[in-house]
Amino acid sequence: MKKAVARSILVVVMLLAFAVIAEAQQAKKVPRIGVLRSVTLTPTAQLIGEAFVHGLRDLGWVDRQNVAIEYRYAEGNVKRLPDLAAELVGLNVNVFFAGDRSAALAAKRATSIIPIVFSTLDDPVRTGLVASLARPGGNLTGLAGLGPELSGKRLELLKEVVPKLSRVALFVNPSNLASDDSVIQETEVAARSLGIQLQVVKVSEPDKLDAAFSTIVRDRAGAVMVLADAIMFTAQRNRILGLVEKSRLPAIYVETPWVPAGGLMSYAPSLPERYRRAAMYVDEILKGAKPADLPVEQPAKFEFTINLKAAKQIGLTIPPNVLARADKVIK
User: Fold this and answer.
1) CATH superfamily name and code, 147-268+303-330
2) Are the CB atoms for 182 and 199 separated by under 8 Å?
3) How does pLDDT run across 33-61, given as a tens digit for each residue?
4) Which of 178, 176, 221, 217 is nearest to 198 (CA)?
5) Domain 31-145+270-301, what architecture?
6) Could you point out which of 49, 265, 278, 298 has its C-alpha 20 to 30 Å from the C-alpha of 101?
7) 203 close to 212: Cβ distance less than 8 angstroms
8) What is the pLDDT of residues 277-315, one digit of tens each?
9) Strand residue runs (E) in the chain
10) Which helix (H) or strand (E) holds 158?
């Protein structure tokens, strides 16, 4: 009798042990997604980031259930990106999602094996992320931007809001000009066609911002355009918005989150839509697709956003015909 009981206990112990081993093995099989960004998400940008998680969930991937998402943010310090990318490689992530140009470049330097899905507002061919849009090659693919092509549209909107506009200050970060040179050239061409003089303002350090705004006010710039730059401009967003308001200058931005944060206008690809599309790329890769076989996607949906509070603060009236074309108006 005692032997039978002992055998029964032994069987139970073995079954429990096998269950633990099986569970551990199963846990190891849960794929990991490494999310890498240059800046920590602000509350507004957090909503955009959630579009990625919701997109995954719609495709059947639920964080901490059948997939694990590991987040790494450089908090505006681009020098941290290589170490953060290496951390994710060390965690054996199955796929990267790089939310901006600098993060994508850091991920590419960290691994030539792990698939990388990127979302960038510029040309990934010029920045060296992929060989071509149709045939990315290597281990990267994702969503590109139309930076140069949209510059003319943004200038047109500024001109409609300020009909007598003759000079626009274009803020760029010279230390992060991987493809912004093409944006500058395209913007200069568009500016000439509209009779606008373009003043290129190069700022790569936060303590140079005050002097830069003093310069454009002295030079009688009539409006401001700020290029996308996660390393400098996004990290200094609130400060830049304060300086724009203090200078009482109308401004247009190339990323939508600037407007809810206090900016006047933006004309940009829909970021939530891009993040949902990025989730679809990740889904395909987790199911076996190769990045080299997935063409890079260009934006198809754009959002024109206006902040009437910001307009009022600088004493600007938005013409009704411009207001009617806005996809979103913040009152």
Assistant:
1) Response regulator (3.40.50.2300)
2) no
3) 999 998 775 555 566 678 899 999 999 99
4) 221
5) 3-Layer(aba) Sandwich (3.40)
6) 265
7) yes
8) 999 999 999 999 999 999 999 988 889 999 999 999 999
9) 32-37, 68-73, 95-98, 116-119, 140-143, 167-172, 197-202, 223-226, 251-253, 265-269, 302-307, 328-330
10) helix 147-161
